[in-house]
Amino acid sequence: MKICVIAGRYGLSGVPLAQYRLARALANRGHDVELVFGAVNSGFEVPFSQHFKILILNKRRVLGMFFDLVKIVKYKNFDLILSAGDHLNAIVLLSAIISRSNIKIACSSRVTPHDTYSDKKFSKGWILKFIMRFAMYRANVLSCVSKDMVAQYKNIFKNSKHVPIYNIIKDSESELKIKENVDEDWLVNKKTPVIIAAGMLEPWKGFADLICAFKKLLNHKKAKLIILGDGSLRGYLEKQIKSLGINDHVKLKGYVKNPLKYFSRADVFALTSHIEGMPNVLIEAMMAGCTPVSTDCETGPRELLVNGKFGYLVKVNDIESISRGLLEALENPIKKNILDEAVELFSEEKIIESYSRYLNINFNNK
User: Fold this and answer.
1) What is the average per-residue pLDDT within 52-64?
2) Are residues 157 and 61 in the same domain?
3) 154 and 112, same domain (yes or no)
4) pLDDT given for residue 42 in this prediction
5) Taking all residues of the chain, what is their mean pLDDT, rounded to a whole number?
6) How would you classify the pairing of strands 141-144 and 224-228?
7) How confident is the model at residue 44 (pLDDT cuts 50, 70, 90)?
């Protein structure tokens, strides 16, 4: 089968990484796969794969991909397109409608619709909602990465046919990355427990909350904090760490190519986001054996941690609650075999099985 997997941009966020894993999983099953990105963020490079083709359109905005996608749909003779992200989904569906193509299309939504759509007339979110209402009939499958998100989409779009399909997190390549060597002294020569966090250094990720909560934790327990990732708040967070007098206890490591190897050597993973879809990084940390502490934000963490069965849920933007959660996780870690039970839902086999069921395609047959 000839399959096109599409994402807007390749960078640090979970969407392009999840699409890359999806392309890899389908190629490993013998399909002819092409992975398409609108652009690649500065400082990043898409990993080469000998199993599938990679096409970069060099279009910084999703809207700019429209005419390229019309050509792809019309002339490349794909049997299936798998796209991710509401803005891109809308453009892909419009491309298929204009091309009068019969190609099968599966569109995945990765963030809560409240963060994407709007009722304010003529706003970007309002226009996108109008387009999706018109175009969503063309999708063979509309999916979300959490069950809570499905419920939200059904509230926004009447007669919505959204279904839950998770991202691939657990696969053989990811498990190999967990075992790679780490050159971080706090992890190699560990003398105190290490808490780790990762993501874009942006306001909605709540890293300022985490740093304040960590400062409070130090009154009760020795620990170190490593934050992986970069973003617009880096300077602000550096000043915060300095003002709190915890420079010797916190590192902003910046972007790392393989965060999984860091997760596997740390004790606790902290996610303090104010909003999420289904946080891939939280699942990756659990796969690597980190005890998770997560804010009970919309959407994803409560569903993933099953109301606290597989990790510690804390209140959003609540320093005291986050600090207590970190302390409890350090003193009462969750065993690896229990974490594996939760992560299994995000295995390559489970996700391909879900796509097979909803698309009525047997992906194990070429």
Assistant:
1) 95
2) yes
3) yes
4) 86
5) 95
6) unpaired
7) confident
> What is 106-171 written as a DSSP string?
EEEE-S-GGGT---STTSHHHHHHHHHHHHGGG-SEEEESSHHHHHHHHHHSTT--EEE-PPP-B-
Q: Is 146 in contact with 14 (CB distance < 8 Å)?
A: no
CB 273 within 8 A of CB 279: yes
Q: How far apart are the first and last CA of the chain?
A: 6
| Calpha distance 207→243 (Å, rounded) | 15
Please name the amino acid found at residue 100. R
Chain centroid offset of residue 201 CA: 15
Q: Is the peptide bond before 295 cis (omega within 30 degrees of 0)?
A: no
Q: Please report which residue ranges of 277-318 form alpha helices under DSSP H.
A: 280-287, 301-305
**Do residue 152 and residue 187 come from a single domain?**
no
Indicate whether 23 pLDDT > 80.
Answer: yes
Query: Per residue in 123-144, pLDDT tens?
Result: 999 999 999 999 999 999 999 9
- pLDDT at position 363, please? 92
Q: Identify the residue whose tokens are 């019969």.
A: 102
Look at the chain and count its residues: 366
Looking at residue 40, which CATH number applies to its domain? 3.40.50.2000
Confidence of residue 366 (pLDDT cuts 50, 70, 90): low
CA 281, CA 40: separation in Å to the nearest integer? Answer: 20
pTM: 0.90
Looking at the structure, tell me whether residues 60 and 189 fall in a common domain.
no
Q: What is the DSSP string of 180-246?
A: S----HHHHT-SS-EEEEES--SGGG-HHHHHHHHHHHTTT---EEEEEB--TTHHHHHHHHHHTT-
What is the per-residue pLDDT across 270-326, written as a single tens digit (0 to 9) for each?
999 999 989 999 999 999 999 999 999 988 999 999 988 999 999 999 999 999 999
* CA-based max dimension of the chain: 64
User: Would 366 be classed as within a structural domain?
Assistant: no
* DSSP letter assigned to residue 334: P
Q: 275 in a domain, yes or no?
A: yes
